[in-house]
Amino acid sequence: MSAITLKSNFTTGITPVKNIFIDHYMVQANGEYVKIYLYLLRCMNGPQLSSSLSINQFADTFDCTEKDILRALKYWENVGLLTMEFSGEQLSSIFLTEPVSTVAGQSVSAATTLEQTPSSPDKIPVRKLSKLVENTEIKQLLFIAQKYMGKTLNATETNTILYFYDTLGFSADLIEYLLEYCASNEHKSFRYIEKTGIAWHELGISSPSQAKEYTSSFSNTYFSVLKAFGISGRLPAPPEKEFIDKWTNQYGFSLELILEACSRTINAIHQPSFKYTDSILSRWKAKNVHTVGDLKQIDSAHEKQKEINTRNLQSAGQPAPAVKKTAFNNIPQRDYDFDELEKALLKR
């Protein structure tokens, strides 16, 4: 394994750790990554350490794999604290950069988030990020975002705004309306804002007018669901909104399917229950139901399976026991299956 040249753009003499690193970078990073970065700083102050630095030596020092070390270095490169140079496939140089960035008149870290899940915003390359944060329109947008959120944005939240602008191609006006819409509905979680923005992108929404048209119909969804449950004269409560948002945004169900689930809830337990409706829609989601036609196929298959089960019992010499005729039993009875069991559990 070849040796690595380590350089920096700031003077040493001690092992310096900037306050901005502690305040903004360290608090968001994996603890193992922090140790790697601090060790790099220490090596800068010790020629005897930096002269023999290698990925293999790193791995031995921290008792981990070389892949773990490279993953940590890649993380710090993504957030702008270092750059790596390679000779072929071998890491040959690490250049440490000073952890300072100013956005909208305040100190924030240069980039982004912790380890990303597939549904999280993509990391923005450091060089592109530095240009974006100097954009006057972006500075104004971040200032507006802070006003709507009522707080200073952290690095992750800043990156989400930049993700909308640079990756999804949202205009500043559309991002501002997104923030206004979410804040006015008391959803100030950036995780919620991120999901809503991605949902708009997937729907092809590219202007504030399209977004307003969509949110208007979305508000109609809230009241349509309340009406289906026989609820009137009030706004949906926050937990009820969360269920409806889940059904429309996360599950992608049409209003027609949602109202069908509401109807089945009332027929099954004779009272409104968002939890029960959610269980119905979750089953439909698991069975890839997207349209009323899909639902009819599922219902038909379910009925056929019930008939097959009944015939199998009869052919095995186990006919269903005759029910004694009474005034009560003359009323048509319903055959309950797992829906009835779920109903009983919900009533506990």
Task: Describe what this molecule looks like in 3D.
- The chain is mainly α.
- Among the domains are: 5-100, Orthogonal Bundle (Arc Repressor Mutant, subunit A); 102-206, no CATH class.
- The protein contains 16 helices and five strands.
- Strand 2 (82-87) and strand 3 (90-96) form a beta hairpin.
- Helix 7 runs parallel beside helix 9 (172-184).
What spatial order of strands do you see in the largest sheet?
1-3-2
Mean pLDDT across residues = 78
Please bin the fraction of helical residues. 55-70%
- The rounded Rg comes to 29 Å
Uncertain residue segments: 101-119
Q: Largest sheet at a glance?
A: 3 strands, mixed
The gross shape turns out to be: elongated
Judged by helices, strands and strand pairing, the structural class is mainly alpha
How many beta-strand runs? 5
What amount of the residues lies in strands? Answer: 5-15%
N to C succession of SSEs? EHHHHHEEEEHHHHHHHHHHH
